[in-house]
Amino acid sequence: xxxxxxxxxxxxxxxxxxxxxxxxxxxxxxxxxxxxxxxxxxxxxxxxxxxxxxxxxxxxxxxxxxxxxxxxxxxxxxxxxxxxxxxxxxxxxxxxxxxxxxxxxxxxxxxxxxxxxxxxxxxxxxxxxxxxxxxxxxxxxxxxxxxxxxxxxxxxxxxxxxxxxxxxxxxxxxxxxxxxxxxxxxxxxxxxxxxxxxxxxxxxxxxxxx
Length: 210
Hints:
50% of the residues lie in helices and 0% in strands. The protein contains 11 helices and no strands. It has helices at 2-18, 27-32, 38-41, 60-75, 87-91, 96-107, 121-130, 141-144, 164-176, 186-191, 196-207. Helix 7 (121-130) packs across helix 11 (196-207) and helix 9 (164-176) packs antiparallel against helix 11. The radius of gyration is 17 Å and the shape is globular.
């Protein structure tokens, strides 16, 4: 467990250094380009359908990274990046500046609050904040922060207030390897150790974490 914690610490330092350059997206330009995004993610970035993620208030660097990797997923035939039948197609015509502008715009918006069912608070809080040493599961808070806000420089996304259904689907994809664009396979390694119950509890817990 100590070795894993050290690895996480070192990775944060490396990622922070790699992302230290100023992010040069234009919010106003991103707003002008965002019309096609609204169908799934909502005009304000708070997806009305829970199978799609809320992207309002998400770190611009993270949104930009995902857009680049959706496009890479399409151009590489799914061999690299992140492949999604809808998003990869949407990202294809975007230029690098388009992606930065959209990322800047959506990150400037406010994510709507969610809620956490009372019955998952105790177990969810323990798993999120402390992990499970016996199973080699580190605390989610180590990367995503105690309030689930993540960190932009290190590339860890905001996970609080996210739709539980979306979080659940992504954890399952990391677990079975169908999503593989995480840094050094970190999320895949962790997700493989999560049971269906763990994923359900964490997904619901994050909905109201603040």
